[in-house]
Write a structure and sequence with these properties.
Helix 2 links the parallel strand 2 and strand 3. The chain is α/β, with parallel strands linked by helices. It starts with a strand and ends with a helix.
Length: 330
């Protein structure tokens, strides 16, 4: 199983040294450390207009880095880990523009890009961006068209497409991606209709950040039925799962790290105990976590992504990365 890491990207709670802004040096430091520790992939998300108050922080937009220039910069300071988007909200940009940006990242990284696309879920962000859709069904139809255009342009072109939301006429995308025939395209989400899109159009499926094995099995059944309708072998869909994670050397160390996590998270994790909070997350001693990962691998998960904080894409504690790497036998 390949183990990835969600990188710090947003200033949810105005950390020091500069209140209201996450220093780029912190993102780069974490990426370098993770690359050196052996994490297989590093991930950024796509919330350009995130509201901090949604996560318990002060009111106002959440400062954070746009994934495209950030991944381009990370391509120059990492050497082994793949770089990915988890996930791009396809309605926020014309698909042809997105494809060109993605190809640039693949070239800069020497062919290390994994593309995560999604329909988007945050209605407030769409309103701020001036993007209007009548419900999730329209966003899913846009996602389908975006996948077609993205994959088409990954071929270099000329490529033309006329859909309801996307239109491309004789477009060329040069240089082509390093990866041939294209970087892998994963779709993120969990609904029935989205899994139908995965079965028909995507190379992989990703879902995050709290999942029990029972709930995941149920979604796998839905995906399997969608693949059967599409005439596709479900085994050809790469399964990627992300979970909030916490690892301790032993029970006492795990309890200490949980206290630190609770004390440094505004809201104190809602007052949850360790036993309550660990449900649906990757939590335990080094040996516990290895057993849990074996269980997910038995379900077919081949790419596992860890979030060392309750909020993904927040700044982790450096020694949490080290013990996560040890637990995941990187």
């Amino acid at each position: 199983m390949e183990i990835g890491l969600s990188l710090p990207q947003y200033d949810f709670f105005a950390p020091e040294p500069e209140p209201g802004r996450l220093p780029w040096a912190e993102v780069e430091r974490t990426a370098r450390q993770a690359d050196e520790l052996g994490f297989h992939s590093l991930w950024l998300s796509d919330h350009l207009f995130l509201e901090r108050s949604r996560y318990g922080g002060p009111s106002g937009r959440c400062p954070g880095f746009d994934p495209f220039p950030a991944l381009g910069a990370l391509a120059r300071v990492t050497h082994r880990a793949r770089l990915g988007t988890l996930t791009l909200a396809s309605p926020l940009r014309p698909a042809a523009v997105t494809a060109k940006q993605l190809v640039t990242v693949d070239v800069l990284s020497g062919g290390r890009l994994t593309v995560g696309l999604g329909a988007g879920w945050n209605e407030a962000e769409f309103r701020v961006a001036g993007v209007a859709f009548r419900g999730p069904g329209e966003r899913l139809r846009h996602l389908e068209e975006a996948i077609v255009v993205t994959r088409g342009l990954f071929g270099g072109g000329p490529f033309s497409f006329a859909g309801r939301y996307e239109r491309v006429v004789g477009a060329r995308c040069l240089p082509r991606p390093v990866q041939r025939p294209s970087p892998p395209i994963w779709v993120g989400g969990r609904g029935d209709r989205l899994l139908d899109v995965v079965a028909r159009l995507a190379d992989g499926w990703n879902t995050v950040w709290v999942w029990t094995e029972a709930d995941y099995r149920e979604r796998l059944q839905v995906l399997g039925a969608a693949c059967e309708r599409a005439g596709r072998d479900p085994a050809t869909v790469t399964l990627s799962l992300g979970l909030s994670s916490l690892v301790g050397e032993d029970a006492a160390d795990l309890a200490r790290r949980f206290r630190r996590l609770r004390d440094t998270t505004p809201g104190g994790l809602g007052g949850a105990t360790l036993d309550e909070w660990r449900r649906g997350r990757l939590v335990g001693t080094v040996d516990d976590v290895r057993v849990q990962l074996d269980g997910w691998a038995a379900l077919g998960v081949s790419s596992f992504i860890v979030s060392p904080r309750p909020l993904p894409f927040a700044v982790p504690h450096p020694d949490d990365l080290e013990i996560l790497a040890a637990a995941c036998t990187l």
